[in-house]
Amino acid sequence: MDKEKNFQQRLWFVRYWANYVKTHSNADWSRQQREMIDSVFMTANQDAGLYLKVKSRARLQNKGSKPQK
After folding, report:
1. Which residues contact 29 (CB under 8 A, 6 or more apart)?
2. What is the pLDDT of residues 15-47, one digit of tens each?
3. What percent of the chain has pLDDT over 70?
4. How many CB atoms lie within 10 A of CB 30?
5. Is the dihedral of CA 51, 56, 61, 64 positive or negative?
6. What are the strands, taking DSSP E only, across the chain?
7. What is the pLDDT of residue 22?
8. Cβ neighbours of residue 20 under 8 Å, at least 6 residues apart?
């Protein structure tokens, strides 16, 4: 994507949300922001749990093998 198109899309996005915040109640857009942020944290926690599970399995599989040179 070229820089100008990217810039225009970002500018549209900022204007869209500025207008949204101006035309909706604080309770409305605050609730939506909270839901989005909570979902980001849930996903991050799930990803962290999966990462630790994979690392644990890899450690168990490599326990009996000889170190590679």
Report:
1. 20, 21
2. 998 998 899 999 998 898 899 899 888 888 888
3. 90
4. 12
5. positive
6. none
7. 92
8. 29
pTM assigned to the model: 0.46
Q: Are 20 and 29 in contact (CB under 8 A)?
A: yes
CB atoms closer than 10 angstroms to residue 29: 15
3-state secondary structure of 25: coil
2-11, 25-34, 56-65: range with lowest mean pLDDT: 56-65
Asked whether the beta carbons of 21 and 29 are under 8 A apart, the reply is yes
Both structure tokens of 2: 């070229």
Nearest CA to 29 among 42, 20, 38? 20
Counting DSSP H helices and E strands in the chain, the numbers are: 2, 0
The Cα–Cα gap between 50 and 65 comes to: 23
